Amino acid sequence: xxxxxxxxxxxxxxxxxxxxxxxxxxxxxxxxxxxxxxxxxxxxxxxxxxxxxxxxxxxxxxxxxxxxxxxxxxxxxxxxxxxxxxxxxxxxxxxxxxxxxxxxxxxxxxxxx
Amino acid sequence: xxxxxxxxxxxxxxxxxxxxxxxxxxxxxxxxxxxxxxxxxxxxxxxxxxxxxxxxxxxxxxxxxxxxxxxxxxxxxxxxxxxxxxxxxx
Amino acid sequence: xxxxxxxxxxxxxxxxxxxxxxxxxxxxxxxxxxxxxxxxxxxxxxxxxxxxxxxxxxxxxxxxxxxxxxxxxxxxxxxxxxxxxxxxxxxxxxxxxxxxxxxxxxxxxxxxxxx
Amino acid sequence: xxxxxxxxxxxxxxxxxxxxxxxxxxxxxxxxxxxxxxxxxxxxxxxxxxxxxxxxxxxxxxxxxxxxxxxxxxxxxxxxxxxxxxxxxxxxxxxxxxxxxxxxxxxxxxxxxxxxxxxxxxxxxxxxxxxxxxxxxxxxxxxxxxxxxxxxxxxxxxxxxxxxxxxxxxxxxxxxxxxxxxxxxxxxxxxxxxxxxxxxxxxxxxxxxxxxxxxxxxxxxxxxxxxxxxxxxxxxxxxxxxxxxxxxxxxxxxxxxxxxxxxxxxxxxxxxxxxxxxxxxxxxxxxxxxxxxxxxxxxxxxxxxxxxxxxxxxxxxxxxxxxxxxxxxxxxxxxxxxxxxxxxxxxxxxxxxxxxxxxxxxxxxxxxxxxxxxxxxxxxxxxxxxxxxxxxxxxxxxxxxxxxxxxxxxxxxxxxxxxxxxxxxxxxxxxxxxxxxxxxxxxxxxxxxxxxxxxxxxxxxxxxxxxxxxxxxxxxxxxxxxxxxxxxxxxx
Amino acid sequence: xxxxxxxxxxxxxxxxxxxxxxxxxxxxxxxxxxxxxxxxxxxxxxxxxxxxxxxxxxxxxxxxxxxxxxxxxxxxxxxxxxxxxxxxxxxxxxxxxxxxxxxxxxxxxxxxxxxxxxxxxxxxxxxxxxxxxxxxxxxxxxxxxxxxxxxxxxxxxxxxxxxxxxxxxxxxxxxxxxxxxxxxxxxxxxxxxxxxxxxxxxxxxxxxxxxxxxxxxxxxxxxxxxxxxxxxxxxxxxxxxxxxxxxxxxxxxxxxxxxxxxxxxxxxxxxxxxxxxxxxxxxxxxxxxxxxxxxxxxxxxxxxxxxxxxxxxxxxxxxxxxxxxxxxxx
Lengths: 113, 90, 115, 492, 330
Hints:
- By secondary structure, chain C is mainly alpha-helical.
- In chain C, helix 2 packs antiparallel against helix 3.
- The longest helix of chain C is centred in the last third of the chain and has 32 residues.
- Helices cover 77% and strands 0% of the residues of chain E.
């Protein structure tokens, strides 16, 4: 039994780490804000869940399990909400998505003091 | 395995810092901070397990919370004229 | 491990200190002050660390704990830090209202005009 | 209850502060604060008496013995400081109600008294404690309330002054924190008594040297010693008059106390004066401070600025006495500390009375006031004479001891310089006298009346104390002698 | 760690604040790896949470661009180099990092580690040192926070304008439109946050946490509410003068525990008098003073935030009024 738990936990952790890394890569390489947010928002939720589940399988007692559950639930709520709010706010404040390559110049000029 | 996961999270944290530094828009920075916060939560829980003291999870919960609240705070106050001004220069 | 940990702390401290004295913007100064203080906290916490020790919460089967006293001191110091930050920001807001700017040089210019 | 006096000294004002929030009317709060301050004064008198008769009092907070818990340690030096602080605070509070009517908006009066009590409690806490970290905590209580009090001033420059003070003060406090941390790292203890026992073992290390340097610089920032004094004049000039009177008499004194305490009791004399070229450094800085600040004072147009610069100069005198580092020198410092508190609070309170009547402290506005406000101006003149060091005033006593100490050490040139510094004081006091007595009143200002009694009485209490302690020096000399003896007795 | 910090030299204040938030999180993670769990807890809640929020509110009032011209950076650089050099010089004789033989670990601390269980009876050593051995420091800390609250009030308090119900409703609606999802999720989370705050408050004896952290978390919950449902609504739930009194009550609760000890003939803050059994007395004492700390911290944090946000609304109101008559703004 233990060996299954350990293996399962490792598997989950591995998947989580991979997702994490891919999300990070997306954050770094994607061209504009919305795509970057997409990369982060999608992977982050899943990666966090994976890693937390991996840890849950290792947890020694009930209290720890409970706390991990709390964290998981909170991330599941918070992460998409935050992403949504962020995108919403960005759109409302006239940040234009970069849809095609024609207007490739900076969509927002940094403020020059 | 834990170590590998910690390493992965750590790398992503560095990436988030880079993005937070580069900008270019306000929202990129918020995104980076948000992501950084989530990853810190993960890092702390992983570290707690690695050191064999899972009591650390309390801190992770606080981090998740604080992260959420700072994002809300940023968004709530980013509708003020100070921020709009920046974006309307275009 | 040697001392390199302390050196990093010193560098951080000095960056914060530099921001405080070299920058003219009042808010930036307060942020610098925060960094300066946080680095001092790191200094304290580093000295509390023992190799092979764990968090100072008594548990069975653990005999090496890191030193709790600096932790206590820093808890107090963090509180002092946030208190200072809050007061400093409150002052900055009032200054902005009274002078219309939060740049040190402009404030001094306006003061000289007053005299 | 007598055994608990040391802690009561601090917690009475500390607990009274939040209680003020429950009182509704500002007059009631004033009476309450005054009563609390008077009670604290009474306690400090009792403490001084106890210390003089039975020696150092040790009080263990929480019932934990010293290196593990925090202890209060009252010796003659602390007792003297406690007496000065509570005494001045009580007299200044007596005048507060009338003075702040004009300077602070009505709805902030309660906050003013709370902050005042907190600041008082903070200073008392710094002085009474025997634990290095506790010093930091109470330092922050007193300085945070100090920043807020200064910012309550009417002029917008008060805000800027308070901000500058906040930055400088926090840097100073953080430096002290670093110093305490380094000391702790080398010795593993925070208790001052314990530190002084354990420091000699490690005193040759570079870390202890650094710790000492940081603590000294941090304290000097708070002290407004000459090159680090920039925050002081503005803070004093634009704060509400009452606050200025209180701080000028106490805040820098507390910093001097810390300097003495760390140098003599914690690090020990031999270390302090051999590790750094401290003696020559302080002597030069002190003398430079006297001259630079006195000269600056001569050119000030604002009388509050004038006296603020004179404060910096007086700090210079204290530092000179300190740098002599003999019993007499230290005694001179402590005497001057006591006397300067008396004269500066008298002067600034008198200025508060002037502000109350004419709403300004520009020198040009003083013309003819000598006839219109005779009592107030007489008080200012006596205070000024005391600053110069004319016989029969307290200023004379301390200068006398200072010169004696310097000559004992054979530093003749320094003695001459000190006398020259006093001449500069003559010049700036004369400018004030000239304006007040020898210039005709400004047109349209015939109706200025004498300040109300509620302001005059505290001023004159202080002035009479100025003269009384100038003639009858038994009490002050006896206490300061005991204090400096005990410091030299403790340190090897 | 150095990387994060070298960044904090940007001109845009907003970016600086974001980065200082990251810096705070980073140092908190560092505290965790250094086994300072309680400190990490507090730093996260305070540094990354409260102070970031306060800074944000502040820059909405003061503007976010920093002027490029700086004065005498060379002098500043010199001062910094000298101090830094002195510190580095000081580090050479320090005991090595992590060394168990350092004086820090040999002199005072062993008693806390070995005997606190029998003397105070609380597994979390940090709590027992904080609340019992060095209880007076903590009392000072509570007073510092109280001072800051009163100071901010003295500086920023404005008399709230009377507002009509209709205006509240319209404001409410506009917020509702803007932040619909946020509001719903937050509403769901709020009770949990408060529950968690209570858990932290009373679990401080056994794990990381205690009055201070709990107070901050509680305050954060209220702040969240205030941000999403408008200041006016929040003010109606939590009245300004009421919260001031709570802050005072916290300090007084702490102090009165000490006074009770005094009246019973023991020294100030000696909790063993609170019960027949000294250990139980210590336990009770710690519980009560943590409660006092929690009350004061929570209410002062709320006071500070409300004053900031209240000032902001007030300024905005002034601006709206003055825009019609004159448009001279800087």
